[in-house]
Amino acid sequence: MKALQYVTVGAEPEVREIPTPEPGPGEVLLKVTAAGVCHSDDFVMSMPLEMFGFDLPLTLGHEGAGTVAAVGEGVRGLELGTSAVVYGPWGCGTCWFCAQGMENYCSRAGELRIFPPGLGAPGAIAEYLIVDSPRHLVPIGDLDPVQTVPLTDAGLTPYHAIKRSLGKLRPGSWAVVIGSGGLGHVAIQLLRQLSSARVVALDVNDEKLEFAKSVGAHEAVLSNAQAPDNVRKITGAAGASLVLDFVGYQPTIDIAMGVAGIDSDVTIVGVGDGKSAARVGFGVSPYEAAVTSPYWGARSELIELIDLAHEGAFDIAVERFDLDNAPEAYRRLAANTLRGRAVIVP
Ligand SMILES: [Zn+2]
Ligand SMILES: [Zn+2]
């Protein structure tokens, strides 16, 4: 089969011919129908050799959708041909966090060397994908896999980040979304669906600001050194009740802290450069502002998102690429010229 693989640290990923895998005991083989392209892949591929923790070559893609092509020994209750999306942050299934469905925070994944597909385990940008357990599949029925696959990360990550702060999004409050790309443009829609907060989106050019408004932002502001003042003109002195930073570099974290209000949540979702940080302390940050950096979301939350998708809740912006053109999708991602999510359709 064909797969997009990261072969050499520092080089572009390559489309290669590799053996089609067979499901072992307890595993599921999916025929991939769609796979999303994410900034965190770029982050992984920017790591120097001494920091790179995965075996190479690595098949990329941690957003996956497919139809069940075969099941391994012991797999029950899953019909061949079922159309499903993949819950990516695989865990052990039995620790306390996994028991809550929060396999994204599995306490044993490191010790057991359990990796998400595309981030250690072979990923979804291929003709076939091995899923380690049927519990990591969420059936999607008649939903379009290309439109739905971004929900597994670009939807699930903001959903998890927003859900934990819903209590702060009272009527009249403001939520600020920094970055209106793959995750941010879903976050804006989720905020509108789930809360009565008003939404300010920040991004780096007018085209992206128009896009943010087209998916539901009430206001849109250029992300630059004047952004905190310009956002405060909209929110008033109270500032934002929730700030979601989908970029995570120092300039956006500084904006996030600059627009946060008293008793707000500042949630840094973007992976940035892995070094940028918020300063918290008396006189430095707003009183009782809580800063956090979440990772992905829970299995139950992906099920909830798919239910929302069945209600027609989302307008996911997708640019399609075939598997042979997958390297181009990564070039466009790095150049920041994608509208919404790039999805590879094998
Ligand atoms: Zn991702
Ligand atoms: Zn676990």
Automatic annotation (TrEMBL):
Annotated Gene3D superfamilies: Medium-chain alcohol dehydrogenases, catalytic domain, NAD(P)-binding Rossmann-like Domain
Cofactor dependence: Zn(2+)
A GO MF term: alcohol dehydrogenase (NAD+) activity
CDD domains according to UniProt: arabinose_DH_like
Keyword Zinc: yes
Database matches in SMART domains: PKS_ER
SUPFAM superfamilies in UniProt: GroES-like, NAD(P)-binding Rossmann-fold domains
Enoyl reductase (ER) domain residues: 10-344
InterPro entries with a match to the protein in the record: ADH-like_C, ADH-like_N, ADH_Zn_CS, ER, GroES-like_sf, NAD(P)-bd_dom_sf
Top EC group: oxidoreductase
UniProt keyword terms in alphabetical order: Metal-binding, Oxidoreductase, Zinc
Catalytic activity field: a primary alcohol + NAD(+) = an aldehyde + NADH + H(+); a secondary alcohol + NAD(+) = a ketone + NADH + H(+)
EC number: 1.1.1.1
Record-stated family: Belongs to the zinc-containing alcohol dehydrogenase family.
UniProt protein name: alcohol dehydrogenase
Organism: Nocardia vermiculata
